[in-house]
Amino acid sequence: MHIQFLNPDDRNQWQILWNGYLEFYKSELPDDITNLTWNRLHDPLEPMYAFGAYENGKLIGFAHVLLQRSTWAKNGYAYLEDLFVDPNIRGKGTGSELIKAVYDFADEKQLDRVYWATQADNPARRLYDKYANESGFVQYRRK
Q1: How far apart are alpha carbons 9 and 31 in whole angstroms?
Q2: Less crowded by CB within 10 Å, the N or C end of the chain?
Q3: Could you give the percent of the chain with pLDDT greater than 70?
């Protein structure tokens, strides 16, 4: 397995995983939002990045990262918005390698924090607890 930035040629493989990710969260998005997301992930003017985990040339997982300024830090933050691994591959370290790649990327950019949010009952929290501390914050949403 190796980790690298997603290539624009990975769209079909990414789409399959993206659909699985949305299904996991019992969510649906219009095609125009999915297309916009894909295009943003490959636009050098956007502060968005996508890492892919590959095994034998097949995309088996992804991590989407958004860079942002902060009123609390000099160098800003990396928000790990999406992390997903093919359910048939889970438990083999793919999620760990994606998190490490995000951490390395944030270190290269000298960012002050990497953070993410998840549902309270997400079984992946066992993995997340190995790499970060739960913040204790509660998320509020308008929509």
Answers
A1: 18
A2: C
A3: 100
